[in-house]
Design goal:
alpha+beta, Jelly Rolls, Arc Repressor Mutant, subunit A, six-stranded antiparallel sheet, four-stranded antiparallel sheet
Length: 267
């Protein structure tokens, strides 16, 4: 895989994937604002799937589980400008703003396709990636603050996400796992998102499911794969990434071990 990243600062980068595709299961520690220069991306969440292409802009909130699959398109690499909206930066921004009504954050990805103000802000960063020397932090801060201001103009409701600095609270573990088992995350991350330490997560999981997280996750992913292959008539090359496996041959091996036949035999 050929992946190139150029950083202006730790919060602003130009990212490029040259290969056929790149897949990752992610939970971002910062809100991520992304503008597509070329290529396509498929983002799979528990209850929805998004497709983004050249010219699209999206904001994915922190602490949201997602499978992200990046594709080159039309002979061009998958290339994006990525801006991290860190908690420290957002606290600095919102300390000057009086938000009187505390809004419940919406757990969703925000799309801003081809919006001229936001596209102009992000496109203005591109020439700097070819300039020698250190990019001034003061200028980076101005560009990030500009982007936040534009987001609030486009959608005032985005304050419910950007101005929320709470850590995840303790939530229903069974419901969370049933919705998010296809995301290949470390157990520490899953524990954090459910408001638990790793030891508490493992203890609560064993009490609820009477098995280990690793075994339960593998079985659930194989069951979803079986459904997608047999009922939705998807191909194994589509399915294995979407249900949480990283390698097609490994997926085929454990699928056959569980069901007694290979995924291709369901086609």
């Amino acid at each position: 895989m050929e992946h190139l990243s150029k950083y202006l600062t730790k919060d602003i980068k130009l990212s490029s994937y040259e290969d056929k595709l790149f897949k990752s299961d992610l939970m971002f520690d910062d809100h991520m604002l992304v503008w597509f220069i070329s290529g396509e991306t498929k983002i799979i969440q528990a209850d929805r799937t998004f497709y983004f292409k050249t010219g699209d802009i999206f904001l994915i909130p922190r602490n949201e589980l997602a499978t992200i699959i990046n594709y080159p398109k039309n002979g061009l690499p998958h290339k994006t400008v990525v801006m991290h909206l860190s908690t420290d930066r957002l606290k600095q921004f919102y300390e000057k703003i009086d938000i009187r009504t505390k809004m419940q954050p919406e757990h969703k990805i925000y799309g801003f396709s081809n919006h001229p103000l936001l596209e102009s802000c992000l496109a203005s960063l591109v020439p700097y990636f070819n300039v020698e020397g250190e990019f001034p932090e003061s200028l980076a801060s101005l560009k990030i603050m500009e982007a936040i201001s534009i987001l609030r103009i486009i959608n005032p409701g985005v304050d419910s996400v950007l101005a929320n600095f709470d850590a995840p609270g303790k939530i229903d573990l069974m419901n969370f796992m049933q919705r998010n088992f296809m995301f290949n995350m470390p157990l520490e991350k899953l524990g954090y998102l459910t408001g638990r330490s790793l030891s508490t997560f493992n203890r609560d999981f064993k009490k609820l499911f009477n098995t280990s997280p690793q075994k339960w996750l593998t079985d659930k992913r194989l069951e979803l794969a079986y459904y997608n292959l047999s009922e939705k008539k998807k191909r194994p090359t589509e399915v294995y990434l979407e249900v949480g496996f990283e390698d097609l041959s490994h997926f085929s091996f454990i699928f056959k071990k569980k069901y007694g036949f290979s995924p291709n035999q369901l086609l």
